[in-house]
Design goal:
Blueprint: H1 8-11, E1 26-29, E2 37-41, E3 48-49, E4 60-62, E5 65-66, E6 76-77, E7 81-83, E8 89-91, E9 100-107, E10 110-133, E11 138-141, E12 146-149, E13 152-155, E14 170-171, E15 192-211, E16 215-218, E17 221-224, H2 230-233, H3 242-245, E18 246-250, H4 253-261, E19 271-273, H5 284-287, H6 289-300, E20 304-308, H7 317-326, E21 329-334, H8 340-346, H9 353-365, E22 369-377, H10 385-398, E23 402-407, H11 414-425, H12 430-436, H13 445-457, E24 474-475
Parallel strand pairs: 2-18, 4-19, 19-20, 20-21, 21-22, 22-23
Antiparallel strand pairs: 1-2, 3-4, 5-18, 6-15, 7-8, 9-10, 10-11, 10-15, 12-13, 14-15, 16-17, 23-24
Helix pairs in contact: 4-6, 6-7, 9-10
């Protein structure tokens, strides 16, 4: 079982300084959180890197807890051959964590091959599709698997979110050539044209891996790996329901962070909290790990920021003041609506949004740079001018230094979850959303522009000290001097 890597004998050889020698692997149910189980673990690392291809403003994150509803998996048949670093190929079913294989990395204008490691490996059972190429190669994959084409990453079928393959699509990869690839431009060898995509009409055992580059070479073409699913499947948990009810707690995270911040190689770059799971979710009231993280960042005088939906962050206002004085710190609160009906329908487990505005005012009174994200914006649910204007007005009165809006993203399995919610609670909007997301997980461009204009024009309030925005899909002035983290998953 994957928990075995946390055993004392497995950990002793690589233990970081300052870590308690007794590993923690405790699992329990809390009476005050019915239906949720907590798993206490010893983390091996604290600071996570964000890849250079990301559109976010930060390059490092910390996540004290694991637990999310946005799982997705991209899988291949077990006999799909993965290109190893030594030029040989191995069936993906036989690949193991730690194996050295080929991946790619964007360098300037080019995507080049390089050697990377397998970080995780798992299997599942999914409906199978055959993708046949003009050179005779047949790839068997799930509908949501992604391959690199000369037009970017594409899913196997249109049943998955995002752009998808079709006959004539041109896949990128080295083909049968398996030697001397390091540093070679991935486009140097001509693309392989897709001839046919056929549903096989049955479920089969499939496999996927996570790599250091986020991709790998599968049967001669470049294949994307999964990022979200391993966060729970790594511990032998289901990547769907368990993301909601199995919360992993990194009980030693502050100690690990302390050691990492003291390494000579660490350059004191901005670290963002709240980019994956909320650091101020309910469990933080029990463990106070996030507070300990701030204490370590304060000791190191390391720039940092936070994104949350919870006014619980006011508990740590004393630390924010000190961070603001000694280094750079910014906060951002997500407030998608003030309408009680819309709030209870879409975010029933989150704190009252009006309490979040009170938190904005308290943070600003303390001199903390604080932004607001009206996110996600959902047509027909929280996009009425009256609702948006009220948020803008109250946030302006609270002194928010920035306000921006983000249209609802429906990537991965969250698409099906949201559409199921529409069928049950808002069937009147179902056809509208089918049209808005006909092309995949991103809202139709014209509607995004309308929502952007709504945030930019609405209300009498204007946030103080506005700045520019880089992130696609965001609207309005959103980046303060120290950028608060933009959410990677918004619904």
């Amino acid at each position: 079982m994957r928990w075995d890597n946390l055993r004392q004998d497995a950990e002793a050889a690589s233990r970081l300084p300052g870590i308690d020698p007794e590993p923690v692997t405790r699992t329990f149910d809390a009476p005050e959180a019915v239906g949720i189980r907590f798993h206490e673990i010893h983390a091996r690392s604290a600071i996570n890197d964000v890849g250079p291809m990301s559109y976010v403003d930060f390059r490092h994150t910390i996540n004290p807890y694991r637990g999310c509803t946005h799982a997705c998996s991209y899988c291949l048949s077990g006999d799909t051959r993965v290109l190893r670093a030594d030029g040989r190929t191995t069936p993906i079913a036989d690949v193991r964590t730690g194996d050295e294989i080929y991946g790619t990395r964007v360098s300037g204008r080019y995507r080049r091959y390089l050697k990377t490691q397998v970080l995780d490996h798992w299997e599942t059972k999914k409906p199978a599709y055959a993708v046949r190429l003009e050179n005779g190669t047949e790839l068997v994959a799930s509908g949501d698997h992604r391959f690199l084409t000369d037009r970017g990453w594409k899913h196997v079928t249109g049943e998955a979110q995002g752009r998808f393959l079709k006959a004539g699509s041109r896949m990128v990869g080295p083909g049968a050539e398996a030697s001397g690839l390091v540093g070679v431009d991935s486009a140097a060898r001509g693309p392989l044209r897709v001839v046919e995509i056929e549903p096989l009409g049955r479920e089969i055992e499939m496999f996927d891996i996570t790599t250091g580059t986020g991709d790998f070479i599968a049967d001669g073409v470049i294949s994307h790996n999964c990022f979200a699913r391993p966060t729970h499947s790594y511990l032998d948990m289901n990547a769907r329901e368990d993301f909601e009810r199995e919360i992993v707690v990194k009980v030693n995270l502050p100690e690990v962070l302390r050691a990492e911040l003291r390494r000579p190689s660490w350059k004191g770059e901005l670290i963002a909290l709240g980019t994956n799971t909320d650091p101020y979710q309910w469990v933080e009231g029990r463990y106070r790990i996030t507070r300990s993280v701030w204490e370590e960042l304060l000791e190191a005088r390391n720039p940092c920021s936070v994104l949350t939906k919870s006014p619980l962050l006011l508990r740590d206002l004393d630390l924010f003041r000190q961070l603001n004085e000694r280094t750079e710190f910014a906060a951002s609160l997500s407030i998608p609506t003030l309408d009680e009906r819309a709030w209870r329908a879409t975010e029933p487990a989150t704190p009252n949004p009006r309490k979040r505005i009170e938190a904005v005012a308290a943070l600003r009174e303390a001199g903390i740079q604080t932004g607001v994200l009206i996110a996600p914006l959902m047509p027909g649910i929280n996009d009425s001018p009256q609702q948006v204007n009220e948020i803008l007005e109250l946030c302006g009165e609270a002194g928010a230094t920035s306000v921006g809006g983000v249209a609802l993203h429906l990537r991965g399995e969250v698409r099906a979850i949201f559409f199921d919610w529409l069928r049950q609670y808002r069937p009147d909007l179902l056809r509208r959303y089918e049209d808005l997301y006909a092309s995949g997980g991103t809202m139709e461009a014209g509607e995004r522009r309308r929502l952007g204009a709504l945030v930019n024009r609405g209300g009498r309030a204007r946030p103080r000290r506005p700045a520019t925005v880089d992130r696609p899909g965001e609207t309005g002035p959103t980046r303060p001097a120290v950028p608060a983290p933009s959410p990677q998953r918004l619904f």
